[in-house]
Amino acid sequence: MTVQFPADFSFGAATASYQIEGAVSEDGRTPSIWDTYSHTPGMVARGDNGDVACDHYHRFSADVALMRQLGLDSYRFSLAWPRIKPDDGPINAAGLAFYDKLVDELLAAGIEPAVTLYHWDLPQTLEDQGGWRERATAERFAEFAAVAAGHLGDRVKRWITLNEPFCSSILGYSEGVHAPGAHEGEGALKAAHHLMLGHGLAAQAVRAAVPGAQVGITLNLASVQQVSDSPEDIEAARRCELVSNLIFTDPVLAGTYPEHAREVWAPITDFSWIRDGDLGTAHQPLDFLGVNYYFPSRPEASAPDEPEAARRVASDLGYQLQEREGEYRTEMGWPVDADAFTDLLTWLRDTYGEQLPPIYITENGIACPDIVHADGRIDDQDRIRYVSDHLKAVRGAMAKGVDVRGYYVWSLLDNFEWARGYQPRFGLVRVDYDTLERTPKASFDWYREVIATHEVD
Fold first, then answer.
1. 417 is in an annotated binding site
2. Where do the annotations place substrate binding (predicted)?
3. Does 410 belong to an annotated binding site?
4. Binding residue per annotation — 163?
5. Which residue among 105, 127, 134, 164 is the active-site one?
6. Which overall architecture, per CATH, does domain 3-456 show?
C-alpha cells in the first residue's frame, strides 16, 4: 500500500558529533567522557574508539555533497561541547569555525541545519567535577548553549537542547553501559533531574540569543508492551514507563514529576536535591518534541540480586526485551515492531493532549548486515523494509490526529555506535573504516525517491 505525506512534511537524516567527526585532539578540542570511556579497556566492543570515526571533521564538504544528492530537506547534527567550550576557560574559536563552515555548506546546498546542543559528549573536566549529578553542570550547559546560539543563530533556527537524556542518565550513571560508566542509584536520578534543568536553562539561553528560534528536546521513549497480566509483570511495565518516559516527559511537557517516582525510589533517595522552581524551569514552552524510536520495550519481572537493586535505578525493573518466536531482530538484538511506533505516538497524544507540541521523528533506523557485492553494490533491503514500515507507522499516527511534521532517518553514515563500536551499521551510506571511502547503499537511492515524491510504497 502506498502512503502519501503532506507536501510540507520534512525529510532529513541525523548524525552525532562523537560518532562521525574524529579529530578528537585537533584545533583545541579536549577530551569528552566518551573519549575516556572508549579508551577504558572492556567498555567498547573490540576496543574501538571514536578517535577517527568517519573523519567528518575533514570530509564534511563531501558529506554535504552526499546530502545534496540525497535531496535532504534538513540535516540534524550535534555540536561537540569540548570542541567549542572545552572547560571553564575561553571559547575555542577554531571549534566554532568548523561549525560555521558546516552550516554555510548546508545552506548553500539548500539543506536546513537542525542543531543538537548535547549528544552525550560532556567535557571530561565537568565529569571530573561530578558531571550531570551536579547542578553546576546544568548551568555550564546553559552557558555553552548561549555561546553556540549566539554564534550560529543568524543561520540556524531549529535547536534541540538534549538528545535522549534517558541514555545520558540511566544508561550512563546507573547501568554503566554508556559513558561515564557509573553504577549508581541516587546519582542517576540526580543526573536525570539536572539534565531536565539544563534543558530548561538552555532553551531560555537559545531563545534569548535567537529571536524566533524553534526550540525542542529529543527523547527516546518506550512503547511499553505488558508481557502478561500477572501483578509482577504489570508492575514491571509500570516501572518501565516511569524510568523510560515519565521522568522526562512529565517535567518537560507538564512541569511535574510522577508521584510513582517517589514511591519507587524512596529506598535510594529523598529527592531533597530538587529545588523550588526547578520544574518550572524545565517546563519551557516547546516549539516541537523530538521523538526517537527503534524498538518496543517488553519488561518482564525478575528478582535482581541484592544489594545491586538497592542502589541502581533500572535493574529492579527486569528491563528485558522478551523474545517472541519467529520475530525478526536487528543486529543490535532489537525486535522490529512498527505498529508499536504508532502506539507510542498516540500514547503521547492521549497522555498530554494540548500540552503536546508538534512532533519531529528525530531518529529511526536499523542496523542490519550489509553485504558488499563484487561490483560494489550494497543491497540493504532489510533497511528499506524497516524504514518503509516505520514511515507508514508515522503516517498512521498522523491519520489518527498526531501532529508529526518531519522524519530524520538514523543515520546518514555508518558510524561509531557507542559501546558497540563500528560493527553495527545504521547508515544509508557505507563507510569503509580502512579507507574512509563512502558508498551509497540501495537504501540511499530508495530514500531519495521517497523525499522527491513524498510517497512510501
1. yes
2. 19, 119, 163, 294, 410, 417-418
3. yes
4. yes
5. 164
6. Alpha-Beta Barrel (3.20)
